[in-house]
Amino acid sequence: MGQELSTVRPQGCTHMKVRQISRLVGRYYDEAHGNATGLKSTQYALLSFVLKLGPLRPGDLAQAMRLDASTLSRNLQPLVAQGWVRLQPGDDARSRLVEITDTGRAVREQSQRAWKKAQLKVNAVLGPERVVALHELLDECIGLLEAAEDA
Q1: Which residues are the signal sequence here (predicted)?
Q2: DSSP string, 37-101
Q3: pLDDT tens digits for 110-119?
Q4: Domains within the chain, CATH numbers bracketed
């Protein structure tokens, strides 16, 4: 059996579609976070990763979040300035570790309630079955794209 050619032809720009849904979904989270804590949803995510995985090297954090090093560095700056995370010396003179502070833990905990509210609202609007299917599709796509980069 030979491989059949697909008759499915995607229309439109995939990048634009992904950005559109990202912006629409992001509004729910940014609104909930901003109203509750003034924290951006991206800052909440960063605090959550540092809390869960830290203390850790910035490179390891960037990899876990699927960010490039310069984006992570730029996103860390306001959190360091607010005293929510700190950069500590690492194993040697050239390395550093990112660690959440007690203040950062408190802000993240307060913001977690806002995240939950946004999460429930998005689930209600889209429906739980669609959200589960979306997560599965996104995870599959992430895996395929990462494998293609590694090849």
Answers
A1: none
A2: TS--HHHHHHHHHHHHH-SB-HHHHHHHHT--HHHHHHHHHHHHHHTSEEEEE-SSTT-EEEEE-
A3: 999 999 999 9
A4: 16-150 (1.10.10.10)
